[in-house]
# Entry
Amino acid sequence: MELVGVLSDSHDNIRKIDEAIAFLKEKGIDIIIHAGDIIAPFAFKKFKGFKVYAVYGNNDGEKLLLKRVAVDLGFVLSEQPLIADINGYHVAVIHGVNTAAATRSIAYSLARSGDFDVVVYGHLHETEVRRVGDTLVLNPGELCGYLTGKATLALVDLEERKAEIELI
# Structure
């Protein structure tokens, strides 16, 4: 079992970030995939001690300072898409684009390519766990809980290509 934590749209909600970190540590998870909208560098620093793979979201305005935090803490942070090899598993991470339909279209297209074990996307603040061929497509929802009233993240078994949405 190769478990990682997947989250998105934390939007500087420090209380929920702290709760998510405590939850992931309790589960023994040391790798986090963040699908964007971190927002402030001070919030990004909270993930110190994890191996983090992240993309910028549409609300991440402090890109230079976020990148500095990433470099200082050994995180991987890039524009979308982030294509990463995580412990031998091929993962694509996007935040998303203007519309829900366009965001899902990009995620599903990446999955249909057959090049990825897992495709992660955010931006929509809605959870989704779906298989497209052999690829797991996942939106962990919003960690911040601002739009839906539910703060969520996902636990993903990369080996099994399975995900569980967790309420934080």
Notes: Residues 62 and 151 are 24 Å apart (CA to CA). The chain has a mean pLDDT of 97.
